[in-house]
Design brief:
Radius of gyration: 20 Å
Helix content: 25-40%
Number of helices: 10
Number of strands: 13
Structural class: alpha/beta
Order of helices and strands: EEHEHEHEEHEEEEHHEHEEHHH
CATH architecture of the largest domain: Alpha-Beta Complex
Number of domains: 2
Largest sheet: 9 strands, mixed
Oligomer: single chain
CATH superfamily of the largest domain: Spore Coat Polysaccharide Biosynthesis Protein SpsA, Chain A
Strand order of the largest sheet: 1-4-3-2-5-10-7-11-6
Distance between the termini: 44 Å
Length: 324
């Protein structure tokens, strides 16, 4: 089993970077562009980013045909193209892109999303700075209002709960400024780069997009970080809204051991040996494989024991529920 990353830049994949030689703005906000593989008018998209005024755009390219990279990098020198050699998870794509940035803030977007007119990078960055005041960057991630292609607002903010002993998520429509959310739906949000890297970014060993986001969001909350929505920024999908697959599997086990199983007492957390028999019974693994998984997670919790500020049960109990 892959060892849980201990630092943000641990295990970054091989890649080639092209372009990105000239700054496109001075807002302090850059964009990370993820690509689903569908063919969208890239020139039009980068023109929109140019008008928005992002400092830089990091476009993470898949393994499909890249015939237009040279042309686009010449026309849009503020765009840096990351050419992957192998397929990686969406969270790993974000980690890799952020390793190429030095902007204080970055906005994760997809090539089938559009920022609705009227909101530029300067305004978005200024809003976050004004909101946080002297505590600039206090919020780990600010999540925009998300709409479908018909401009209907989607229930993309997430509240946590428990049902029959298992964690569940309850999506809801943004109601007002600052509504809390467990994680940024579809990875989309304006992140504070320093807080993101200190958190360790996304766990690249978790392959399921859903459980990777759950791990990121729950870990952030357990470690005292804040993720919330804003009414200022709105984005809309060009096509279908991507479904979330919450099926349990290897990714869920990694999420469980890192976030649900640790016990928090006084000022630190630990993963007790006494919980291993129950894990062995439910893991579906043989004793040796189950112990390797458990021991790996136990070491990770030990290394990060003082970063925990609460446990999952207390976090869910104290969650701020949105008002009707």
């Amino acid at each position: 089993m892959n060892t849980i990353p201990t630092t943000f830049n641990e295990g970054l994949p091989s890649y080639t970077a092209v372009g990105g030689t000239r700054r496109g703005g001075t807002s302090g906000l850059s964009a990370v562009l993820l690509n689903r593989g569908a063919r969208y008018p890239r020139r039009t998209l980068f023109q929109e980013f140019e008008k928005t005024g992002f400092d830089y755009v990091i476009s993470v390219e898949g393994k499909e045909d890249r015939y237009d990279i040279e042309e686009l990098s010449g026309r849009f020198p503020f765009v840096r193209f990351i050419l992957l050699k192998d397929e990686i998870s969406q969270g790993a794509c974000v980690n890799l892109a952020v390793s190429e940035l030095d902007s204080p803030l970055f906005f994760v977007l997809w090539n089938d999303l559009r920022i609705l007119h009227g909101t530029g990078a300067v305004r978005m960055a200024r809003f976050i700075a004004d909101r946080d005041g002297e505590q600039a960057g206090r919020r780990l991630c600010t999540v925009p209002v998300m709409q479908n292609s018909l401009y209907d607002t989607l229930p993309t903010l997430i509240s946590p709960g428990f049902h029959r002993g298992r964690i569940k998520t309850l999506p809801y429509v943004p109601l007002r400024e600052g509504n809390p959310t467990l994680y940024p739906f579809d990875c989309v949000g304006i992140y504070d780069r320093l807080r993101f890297t200190r958190l360790g970014g996304f766990d690249s060993t978790i392959k399921s997009p859903y459980w990777q986001l759950m791990d990121f969001g729950v870990r952030a909350r357990l470690w005292g970080e804040d993720i919330a929505g804003t009414q200022l920024v709105r984005v809309c999908y060009d096509g279908e809204v991507p479904p979330e697959d919450s099926s349990a599997g290897l990714s869920y086990k990694r999420f469980f051991l890192k976030n649900l199983a640790p016990v928090f007492r006084d000022d630190s957390a630990n993963l007790p040996l006494g919980r291993f028999p129950a894990y062995l019974f439910t893991s579906g693994e043989g004793p040796l494989a189950a112990w390797e998984e458990y021991a790996d997670s136990r070491q990770w919790v030990e290394r990060n024991r003082y970063r925990f500020t609460t446990d999952i049960e207390t976090m869910v109990k104290n969650w701020e529920q949105p008002l009707p």
